[in-house]
Amino acid sequence: MIHITDQISIREDEIKEEFILSSGPGGQNVNKVASAVRLRFDIKNSLSLPDEVGMRLKLIGGKRVSSEGVLIITARRFRDQNKNRKDALSRLVEMIRKASEEEKPRIKTRPSCKARIKRLEAKRHRSGIKKIRRPALLTEE
């Protein structure tokens, strides 16, 4: 079990890891060792996640979520396979923690009367500066 919050824990069999060749530093070893990790987590069919957390996780995941509802995280930051595994898992945990927090509803506010007056005065001032910079009109008499 992977502990995420007090209420949410994920079973390890819900996460699938695939090791792929990684680009970047590593010399000749790059072409021989599959050090990058592609982690897959099925949001849609997960029994560990509440529905509202799953929906928010899909929004947070964005392009990393496939049309089938699978979150795909690719970690290739390090040369070491174990470090990349830990990196991918920590990124997944962080995303789920972020999705588990409910957003506060936005309270609409209005600018104060003084703020409106100050904004209009600034616009008038800027307009005056621009008028001064205009070339003088050539008038023929």
What can you see in these coordinates?
The protein has 141 residues and is of the alpha+beta class. It has a single domain, classed as Double Stranded RNA Binding Domain, CATH 3.30.160. Helices cover 37% and strands 16% of the residues. The chain contains three helices and five strands. It has a three-stranded antiparallel beta sheet with strand order 3-4-5, with helices on one face. Helix 1 (51-61) packs across helix 2 (81-100). The protein is elongated. The relative contact order is 0.15.
What does the secondary structure layout of this molecule look like, with pairings?
Layout: E1 2-3, E2 9-10, E3 15-20, E4 36-42, H1 51-61, E5 70-75, H2 81-100, H3 113-133
Helix pairs in contact: 1-2
Q: Mean pLDDT, as a whole number? A: 85
C-alpha-based Rg, rounded: 27 Å
Query: How many separate structural domains?
Result: 1
> What structural class do helix, strand and pairing data support?
alpha+beta
Could you give a short description of this structure?
37% of the residues lie in helices and 16% in strands. The protein is of the alpha+beta class and 141 residues long.
List keywords for this structure.
alpha+beta; Double Stranded RNA Binding Domain; two-stranded antiparallel ribbon; 5 strands; 37% helix
